[in-house]
Design a protein that fits this description.
Distance between the termini: 56 Å
Helix content: 10-25%
Shape: globular
Strand content: 35-45%
Structural class: alpha+beta
Number of helices: 9
Number of strands: 28
Length: 442
């Protein structure tokens, strides 16, 4: 297998290609390297090429005739693609795509795209699923609160920093939060951190986002949320069900699979258990996909303030069951996020995990994910590596005890109104959620 074939074989969206088709694509693909800051695709240029990212990261920005600055739309990393809309519509490019790190792309022509990719049902399904996710992200971006200002970029930056003007992030009123010490994770009601989200969702350690994407799907189809809560503050639960799924020529009807996601925060990330329950009278095979990425953006970048320089993204380190995403910051510190999956996945790359679960009739199967963030350098160590992370049961007991101590130390208010008492109790827990640790001090 050639180097190009091996690279294409790791791309999730091309996983439906057999070896012969993959070789045919590899023989016709063109590999190109782009330095950091290079404009790969320019808005309004004619589009005759599909780009598949093999290495690095890119940012999609769109220029408006009425605005002096470009609006960021999304970020993509290894295994993702861009440029497909121009090929499908035969129209000019709708945005700029800029390399945020040194990037290598595989370029596919219009002819290869239509002949080798669109003709393959699995690839076409993956393409449609990706387009659907991006459409939802763009709808969210379109509906975000706007600021009616024509201030230049420097003035806008000053207003955000000094006057608290609304940032580029969208509405997060439906988002859920779990937190412990200096770590917090913000996710949507499905329990996901969608790739390219503009709401600032992610896993944060201190002031840095260590996980900018963490999205679960069944095959390439998103589940439907039934119940979603993070009321405890240190733990969250989602109950999801399936849409119609087709695997191995067997159709699994909608609402016959229950997916339970239980997530517990620790001081450097979270532990998650995913359980799939089958309510069909026959066994099923379910593919659980998790897509992940880490942009290591600071809070100001997340809020929409651009940076002229960034550090260096490291190549993901992929083991049998663990992937580590790393970044060398301009401050001399090293930032990393490690994800471990149990049992060992069927496929693991720098951006995607696939676990194949064989679930018996009326039975269940599952997997666990442990995510840990860490920052080191200049004598500073924040967070933990995976070997130091406590198991879920230990962490739950620690968190319960910590919250009980907090409530016991707080002023007690008791009234004849149960709703009032519940509101006070919830407010105390919310205050505990906001507490950060500074060294050994609270």
């Amino acid at each position: 297998m050639s180097t190009v074939e091996a690279a294409l074989a790791k791309i999730p969206f091309l996983s439906g290609l057999d070896a012969d088709c993959r070789k045919q694509v590899a023989d016709q693909v063109d590999l190109r390297d782009y330095p950091e800051g290079a404009t790969i695709v320019e808005q309004d240029d004619p589009g005759r090429t599909l780009y598949i990212i093999l290495r690095g990261r890119v940012r999609v920005v769109r220029h408006s005739r009425s605005a002096e600055t470009a609006a960021p739309l999304a970020e993509f990393g290894p295994g993702e693609f861009f440029g497909e809309m121009a090929l499908l519509e035969n129209l000019p490019r709708s945005a700029d795509v800029i390399a945020t790190t040194p990037t290598t792309c595989a370029l596919l022509t219009w002819e290869v795209f239509h002949t080798c990719l669109l003709g393959n049902p699995d690839v076409a399904q993956a393409l449609l699923a990706t387009l659907s996710r991006r459409l939802r992200a763009l709808s969210e971006l379109h509906e975000r609160p706007r600021v009616d200002t024509k201030a230049p970029a420097k003035e806008r930056e000053r207003r955000i920093l000094e006057q608290g003007e609304l940032s580029m992030t969208s509405d997060i009123r439906d988002a859920l939060v779990i937190k412990e010490h200096n770590h917090f994770t913000i996710f949507d009601p499905l329990g996901n951190i969608p790739p390219g989200n503009t709401a600032g969702l992610g896993l944060y350690l201190g002031d840095t986002r260590h996980l900018s994407a963490y999205e679960l799907s069944l095959g390439r189809v998103h589940a439907v949320v039934l119940v979603s809560t993070a009321q405890l503050g240190y733990a969250a639960e989602q109950q999801l069900t399936n849409r119609d799924l087709t695997t191995d020529k067997v159709t699994i009807r909608k609402e016959t699979i229950l997916v339970s996601r239980d997530r517990v925060a620790h001081d450097a990330g979270f532990w998650e258990e995913i359980v799939v329950r089958n309510f069909n009278p026959f066994p099923v095979q379910v593919e659980v996909h998790i897509q992940y990425a880490a942009d290591f953006a600071d809070l100001f970048e997340v809020r929409g303030i651009g940076r002229t320089r960034r550090g260096t993204m490291r190549h993901p380190v992929v083991g049998e069951d663990t992937v580590t995403l790393g970044y060398d910051g301009l401050d001399g510190r090293y930032y990393e996020t490690a994800l471990t999956f149990t049992p060992r996945p069927a496929r693991l790359s720098g951006s995607t995990m696939v676990c194949r679960l064989h679930v018996a009739a009326l039975g269940e199967g599952g997997l666990t994910v442990n995510v840990a963030a860490r920052t080191t350098g200049d004598g500073v160590v924040e967070g933990r590596d995976l070997a130091q992370v406590p198991d879920a049961a230990t962490q739950i007991e620690r968190a319960k005890h910590s919250y009980q101590e907090w409530r016991a130390a707080a002023t007690q208010i008791d009234s004849a109104n149960e709703l009032f008492d519940a509101t006070i109790a919830r407010s105390l827990d919310d205050l505990r959620l906001l507490v950060n640790r500074l060294g050994d001090q609270w």
